[in-house]
Amino acid sequence: MGALTHTDTGAKRSIRLYGWDSRTGTWSGPTGLGSAGRASRRLLDTLRTVQGRSWFGPMRCASPGEPPARFFVTVHHLEDCAVAMVYCGDSKAGPAEVLAVIPAEFRSRLRPEFAFEFLAFASFLGGIGESAAITVQDRIAAAIEESSAADSMVFSLCTGLWPSDRDPVLSQCIETIAMSLLPWLAERR
Asked: pTM of the predicted model, to two decimals?
């Protein structure tokens, strides 16, 4: 499937989050992320000082009623999106989450093979099993095609390398990263 999107010039801009949970084999979304959101001023300021197109560093996140957690994040600014890998603390087992963030402003240049390439990348990292890759690729392609070109999109792949009882803090971290990457990408286009 190509990167064609439903065009609606009067459409209200929104941020749509889609996700795959490798532990349960379930797809979710779209879930709306509010524009007032949970962006991290510290992360956004750090990204703004990056000389190149990549950044890596520690990040602490907390969720109400949960103890804070330390993550290590790697971000790459690509031509049509940003990808991020979120590692738990000092884990060397692989990322707990792999995400792609596509601002609405980048949708027109989203490569037709985006879904395939994102899943191939996540597969190389051990982020998604071979048996699920085609299903998830099809769901990502359908989400892109069915959404409005005015929508920013976030695709998150939970690898299962994080204790499920700590999911609320990981979810908070993913939302914070996504909401921080959107303005950073918009500024750099």
From this structure: 0.89
